Automatic annotation (TrEMBL):
Residues 279-288 have a biased composition (Basic and acidic residues). Residues 255-266, 289-298 have a biased composition (Polar residues). Residues 226-315 are annotated as: Disordered. Coiled coil: none annotated. InterPro entries: DUF1631, EAL_sf. This is Uncharacterized protein. It comes from the Bacteria. It holds the Pfam family DUF1631.
Length: 1171
């Protein structure tokens, strides 16, 4: 952009007014931020947690910052305002000169500068996550004023601009790097506290000038406009790549992928890592794009007030699960509602209702509901569904639409009510709103999709109020009953009733929120005080040990220290007593100890006057001696008597010294020997304050808890419930174990609002209904899966006490296999059948009373020697297994493999190896595969096509070993132990080869594609595999988003907590997660959300639909809508029929190129990346 254009932009009166507004907004706030930073340095300079040298450095920095505070604030403001002179970018980058001293030597970056830039980049990223919506709104409004592409706008006050101005200004005073590191965090904290108001007032100025006044609502509804523009730009560049990227131009596909408009064109971290960790890959691989704001976000001070909701200020505190951060769920779309209302999820032919007849029938239903309300009828939880009470049938499209619409209200009520414990008064009060919502749904069924509708807002507000309200609070229950009773009494189609109720419930919820925040503040203050006392105690203990290092000390002195003197020293330290006074206290104690120890060595005792003088000094040093008990006073008398020789001096082993398991470096050295515990400790320390977790108790009771406090050393943590009450405190190892056992991250659907959550539940029911029609369940079954699990669990407990006595059998086929012939054969053989039933839609389970798998193997072989193909898995119920679920999952997996590989043959599951044995086997197998038995490494290209644009594709490369992506089916001939070890070792080789190849591509300056790795469940469950993966990625420098880990759907995958932990760990570092062969015959595909996958790849057998199976398109549609609601993509791989794919919600189609290529071939074909 030329200088003339910049000058024209700067002279625009609206830009000039904006500049003046920003100057008036920033001036007082920048001074406040600098004052807070100065105070922070002063506090550090007097902190007992820092060494004396560090405190001295902080004080010097405090003095320098204090003197230069005004100058720095003015400099920051001046630098920010100067950015208005260059609002529009010309899209070019300044290239370094070949003679540049920095770039002439291989483009190396000074290490200190690199680390500083990484620290700043991390803070910028954190800020962008919180303020992306108002910042994007400001960018778009400025672009509107200057009539330029928003992507070319260089924001004068974005996060990067603030930090660049701050770092430039802080360089005016010569500060130590450690002091600057402290200041970086302080600047970010204090700036973030002000940014909400800064951006809010700036946007408000432009709104008052009538510049895009409805922009925030549009961004909430449609998502990020800038991100869509970037994606469109990338797509165009991929389709028409530049063959020669000249000076000032980046290679195609490697444009700067800034997280927000206005940020710098490329960070030092990107410059150092962009080849191996390129972020410019197609975002279609990502789960969803967050905009930093949603309709659920609220302002920090009044997070639920309608006026702040309208302003669109994102909250800075996650006051409830799913609030205060970017929400995962997309709003309910009109298309989903239309499909629900018009039978779009039915297996038959759907017919759209006639609009006129539907309006007429809806009016009749609304009148019927109004009459029921006038008669005082309340639709309680124990009553039939409302569609049954209204006698709505599915005889015609109009009736069907109304059934579905009012059925959604039933589902919504169930979702809200389930958030409350059963048999509570507040849960019964919610019955009052069912009929009004049903009446509204009949006349205005699409209120679900409007996030600003007062009825929808009321439901959200009720959810917040329910979470914040203490159980069985009469005051809250009375107010809620009054509000809901008013709705039930007065609603006649006028939305002002809901608006008035929304205001009342908001006031109540705000009161509860303030109480929650007060509770949290009180507990945090208490924890801070407790922590300060513990630190003082450790400091005193260490000082006592330094002054009294003897291994044995007088018993009387140790008792005096334990009961009186230690508390006295801690009190002095907490009161910030000057060091000279403290030194005198320790010297006095040392003098007393010397007197007593000299007597034990045979030296003369003190005379009476000397002993009394020393005793008096101890007494006078104590504060508030009037509160000492008689016993404590007697301790001082005992010391005086021993000093004079009146009583002998007894020695005891010293108990002084800091007693903590977290003392460094000892703790880290011990932790290094326990890799599994180390991983959980690392995860515990990585959880930020404000994070919500779900606690699953032994009684299957679930509650949400929030981390409200942690100490600076990350060894103590405090958690509160949704009302802000402290529920437990954990030290580091306890927290790590609880993360492994009971504390889980929130599922994606738990981050949805009640409206979206109810639609999610409705779609799950629809999917289950369609799956039941497609795979009908056999009529006669004595036990269901849950009961079979309980039965095996009983036998498992017996096996741990007395040894194995039972076996479990699973029969796997296309349809549930009738077990009558098998039971008859078992009975004839004298083997008792304890239980039988259905494990899944394709698997039947039998529990038999015999530990002899050989007899069973022969018996099932005779029984199923002829007939339809059936997979048979046999498992001995023994103490080798951890749970009943593991036994059934193992037997079902074995039967499924037998169905494909060895039908009608009983496959006996081998003995489960102990962890240590398996670890040795995996390592030895891996070393063999890396040595003499190295499998052939090759790759296969997969083109991912977006269904909305089948002309363009994004390539990824599947990692193969000996031509196979997944060798699990080939390993079944081996025994269980060897099969598991080889499967895990092969997956290790895949990861190692992919990382090595990526490192090679980066070293040669070539583009790094996405590598697709099929990982077995056995590998993911092995405790060393995650460490191996993380180490391989770290050593190679590959970007974590360059690896896509894919798992095959199974009951084991869905139900294993360890597998969910594994995928969540990879997801948290940016790796892509995919689940293939997803089939609803195993149950609702919604179960897979615990794995947090980016992509769901459907089972190939589901498409195309068979001629006698017209329900398959509806099944695909409901699966797609279900997973879109939680931000997951749905994929078909290598479909033979492309018709209808664009109409059933499929996001991508994968096309596998059959030819394999070598690593050398891939390297030669990848484009060079120009820096």
């Amino acid at each position: 952009m030329s200088e003339n254009i910049d000058t024209t932009v700067a002279l625009d009166p609206r830009i000039s007014g904006l500049r003046q507004t920003i100057e008036s907004v920033l001036t007082p706030r920048m001074r406040l931020v600098l004052e807070e930073m100065t105070e922070h340095l002063f506090n550090l300079s007097s902190s007992g947690q820092l060494e004396s040298d560090a405190r001295a450095e902080c004080f010097e920095a405090f003095a320098a910052l204090k003197n230069g505070q005004k100058l720095i604030a003015e400099s920051v403001l001046k630098l920010l305002l100067e950015n208005f002179n260059h609002l529009v970018s010309n899209g070019t980058q300044t290239q370094p000169s070949p003679t540049d001293p920095v770039t002439s030597e291989l483009g190396l970056v000074d290490r200190d500068s690199f680390e500083d830039e990484l620290a700043i980049e991390k803070l910028v990223k954190l800020g962008l996550e919180r303020f992306s919506l108002p910042l994007e709104a400001l960018t778009l409004r400025i672009a509107e004023i200057v009539d330029e592409d928003p992507l070319d706008i260089r924001m004068p006050i974005d996060l990067r601009a603030f930090f660049d101005a701050y770092r430039t200004a802080i360089a005016l005073i010569d500060l130590d790097r450690d002091a600057i590191a402290h200041l970086d965090g302080s600047f970010a904290r204090n700036l973030f506290a002000e940014l909400g108001n800064i951006y809010g007032e700036t946007n408000q100025y432009l709104i008052d000038a009538n510049i895009l006044p409805e922009l925030e609502s549009r961004l909430e509804r449609e998502g990020s406009i800038l991100e869509r523009r970037r994606q469109s730009k990338r797509s165009r560049e991929r389709i028409t790549p530049k063959l020669d990227a000249g000076p000032g131009t980046q290679a195609p596909g490697y444009e700067s992928n800034n997280a927000h408009p206005g940020s710098s064109a490329g960070t030092l971290e990107e410059q150092a890592r962009s080849i191996a960790a390129n972020d410019a890959h197609d975002r279609r691989h990502e789960r969803f794009q967050t905009t930093g704001f949603s309709s659920a976000s609220r302002s920090p001070d009044l997070p639920m007030a309608p006026e702040t909701l309208a302003k669109g200020t994102p909250t800075s505190r996650a006051y409830l699960p799913g609030y205060g951060a970017a929400r995962l769920g997309s709003p309910v779309t009109p298309q989903v509602l239309n499909r629900l209302y018009t039978g779009g999820y039915s297996t038959g032919q759907s017919v759209a209702p006639d609009a006129a007849r539907l309006r007429h029938r809806a009016g009749e239903v609304a009148d019927n509901i109004a009459q029921l309300r006038e008669q005082g009828v309340i639709a309680s939880e124990s009553d039939p569904a409302m569609i049954d009470m209204l006698n709505l049938t599915a005889d015609n499209p109009e009736e069907q639409a109304l059934r579905e619409s009012i059925g959604l209200v039933d589902s919504l009520y169930e979702t809200v009510a389930n958030a409350l414990p059963e048999q509570t008064a507040l849960r019964r009060k919610l019955d009052l709103i069912k009929w009004p919502l049903a009446q509204l749904s009949a006349s205005e069924p699409h209120f679900y999709e409007n996030p600003e509708h007062p009825a929808r807002l009321l439901i959200d507000r009720l959810g917040e109020m329910i979470a914040l309200s203490p159980a069985n609070n009469p005051r809250v229950e009375k107010r809620v009953e009054s509000v809901l009773d008013t709705i039930n009494r007065d609603f006649n189609g006028d939305l002002s009733v809901f608006t008035s109720a929304l205001s009342d419930i908001t006031d109540l919820a705000l009161q509860l929120l303030r109480q929650q925040q007060r509770n949290i503040e009180r507990h945090v203050a208490a924890e801070e005080g407790r922590e300060r006392r513990q630190l003082a105690n450790q400091q005193v203990e260490q000082r006592l040990l330094d002054k009294l290092p003897e291994l044995q000390l007088p018993e009387s002195l140790l008792k005096f220290i334990d009961e009186v003197w230690r508390d006295h020293l801690i009190f002095l330290l907490l009161r910030d007593t000057d060091p000279t006074t403290l030194d005198r206290q320790y010297a006095l104690l040392r003098q007393t100890a010397d007197g007593l120890l000299s007597i034990t060595r045979g030296q003369e005792c003190l005379d009476e006057n000397q002993a009394q003088g020393l005793s008096r000094q101890l007494w006078e040093s104590l504060d508030n001696t009037q509160f000492l008990t008689g016993h404590q006073q007697a301790l001082l008398t005992d010391i005086q008597r021993e000093l004079t020789g009146a009583t002998p001096v007894a020695l005891l082993d010293s108990t002084l010294g800091v007693k903590t398991i977290y003392r460094e470096p000892d703790f880290s050295e011990r932790l290094a020997t326990k890799p599994r515990l180390k991983r959980w400790v690392r995860r515990a320390r990585g959880i930020d304050v404000g994070t919500w977790l779900s606690e699953q108790s032994d009684q299957s009771y679930q509650r949400n808890v929030q981390l409200i406090w942690r100490n600076e050393s990350l060894t103590r943590f405090a958690f509160a419930n949704e009302q802000g009450h402290l529920v437990f405190e954990l030290h580091l190892l306890q927290f790590a174990r609880q993360l492994h056992r009971r504390l889980r991250p929130l599922r994606p659907d738990q981050n949805l609002s009640f409206i979206e959550r109810s639609v999610f539940a409705t779609l799950e029911k629809k999917q289950t209904s369609i799956a039941a029609e497609l795979w009908p369940v056999a009529e006669s079954r004595s036990l269901d899966r849950e009961q079979l699990v309980d039965a095996v669990q009983t036998n498992l407990r017996r096996a741990r006490r007395r040894g194995a006595s039972h076996c479990a059998l699973v029969l796997f086929a296309d349809a549930p296999t009738k077990t009558g012939a098998l039971i008859e054969a078992l009975t004839n053989a004298g083997i008792a059948v304890e239980a039988e039933g259905l494990i899944s839609r394709r698997a039947s389970g039998v529990i038999v009373e015999t530990p002899d798998t050989n007899v069973l193997h022969a018996l099932v072989g005779e029984t199923f020697s002829s007939g339809s193909p059936t997979g048979i898995g046999l498992v001995l119920i023994s103490s080798d297994y951890q749970s009943a679920e593991e036994i059934w999952s193992t037997a079902e997996d074995t039967a499924a493999r037998g169905y494909s590989d060895s039908p009608n043959t009983g496959l006996v599951v081998g003995k489960v190896p102990h962890g240590e044995d398996l670890q040795i086997a995996v390592r030895s197998t891996f070393e063999s595969l890396k040595g003499d038995l190295t499998p052939t490494f090759s790759l296969r290209r997969i083109d991912r096509l977006e269904t909305s644009d089948l002309e363009s594709s994004e390539p990824m490369y599947q990692v193969l070993l000996d031509g196979m992506a997944d060798a699990s089916s080939e390993l079944q001939a081996l025994s269980g132990h060897r099969s598991v070890a080889l499967s895990i070792a092969l997956d290790c080789v895949k990861v190692s080869n992919a990382c090595t190849l990526a490192e090679r591509l980066a070293a040669e300056g070539r583009e790094v594609p996405v590598f697709h790795l099929a990982i077995s469940s056995d590998a993911a469950l092995h405790h060393d595999f995650l460490d191996f993966v993380l180490d391989a990625m770290s050593r190679s420098g590959i970007g974590t988003n360059r690896l896509c880990y894919e798992f095959r759907d199974s009951m084991r995958l869905r139900q294993s907590i360890q597998l969910a932990d594994f995928t969540n760990a990879l997801r948290s570092i940016g790796s892509l997660i995919s689940v293939c062969n997803v089939n609803p015959s195993r149950g609702s595909t919604g179960q897979l959300q615990v794995l947090c996958p980016h992509n769901i790849v459907l089972d190939p057998s589901l498409w195309p639909p068979a001629e006698d199976n017209p329900g398959s398109p509806a099944l695909h549609q409901v699966i797609s809508d279900l997973h879109h609601l939680v931000g997951e993509h749905v994929i078909l791989r290598d479909p033979s029929d492309m018709s209808q794919i664009q109409d059933i919600g499929i996001d991508f189609v994968d096309r596998t190129v059959p030819d394999e290529i070598s690593a050398d071939t891939l390297v030669s074909t990848m484009a060079h990346v120009k820096r």
